[in-house]
Amino acid sequence: MKLRGFMAGKGDSFLISWRECEQDRAILIDAGIALTYKFIREVLKSGPKLEGIILTHVDYDHIGGIYSLIKAKEVLIPACPVFINTPDLAFGLPSETGEVGYSHANKLNEWFSDKGVEVHPLFKGHYENDILAFGDLKLKILSPDQEILTQLVKEWNAETISEADKKEKHDEGKVGRRTLNLKNYDEIVNEPENIPSWKQGVVNASSIALLVTNGSTNILMLGDAHPDIVYDSLVKLGYNAQNKLKLNCCKLSHHGSKHNTSQKLLSILNCSNYYISTSGAGKDYHPDRETIIRLSEYGRYNKNQPITVHCNYPNSTEGLLTPDELTSLNIIFTHSPEIDFAD
Hints:
The protein is α/β, with parallel strands linked by helices. The protein is 26% helix and 26% strand. It has helices at residues 37-46, 60-63, 66-71, 108-114, 146-155, 158-168, 185-190, 202-205, 227-236, 263-266, 289-298, 323-328; strands at 2-5, 14-20, 23-29, 49-55, 82-84, 90-94, 100-107, 119-121, 131-134, 137-143, 209-214, 217-221, 245-246, 249-251, 269-270, 273-276, 307-311, 331-335, 338-340. It has an eight-stranded mixed sheet with strand order 9-10-11-12-14-16-17-18. A seven-stranded mixed sheet has the order 8-5-4-3-2-1-19, covered by helices on one side.
């Protein structure tokens, strides 16, 4: 199984591919921003057969490239099903500038229907044993559940979502990154974690989170999901600090935000490879230093095993650690457009 992260600005777009019956197959998880399409297109033109598209939630930095993708005749998207948490919600279509045009909202399922695309809901409780299968590729659904979606539908308002998005990008919290005064390691470890309730960010909490399995390879794809929701799902599956979920890779939630990666969740993962999807643009934008420190302290199999943080942009994690910390914490940052998890 291979994991490819496309350049998606501050967003997400991943292609998971595998070989089955002498054919290369793939699913696309999210489509990034509008410009992401050109990268997806180049791979799909000569790459694997696309079996399905999963849109984790309706934030534009996860769905922006889907419009061009649907219209591309050579990709044959009408024969490829799309899965999304809530197909009935209204969301903003992109304007000519690439920004979300909330005043031109449309229903997602109606837009897909006009394009001849088959759309299916994807959430806990909808499929038997919460598993969606594409041949040998199995997707275990960890988030969202019906309670979250009910709240999402209740609160849904395009203008409200727009304001929440702006507020999120203006974080007044103390985040020491790319500055001369990095927040102290011990301070981060010892301070109480500030993980807001999922009800304070229901759009991200509604994000689809998946455990993707093919053969002996396990990849945790977290979208922008809330860590408590994913933790509760994994605990119900029998995972805990003594019986950790063994992973080949974990795609961190919400581009490495400190609000979406908790000590509690990391404590039940056996993982040494993490993936952060973001360009890192902006002085105080994702990923957060706090997230990297939590990975170092709680997110490794043992203290002697290095952690590799894979990124879809070459400099998105620059300045998160001091030169001494890069050595002492045994953390490797690497630009990894594609990772091959050979059995």
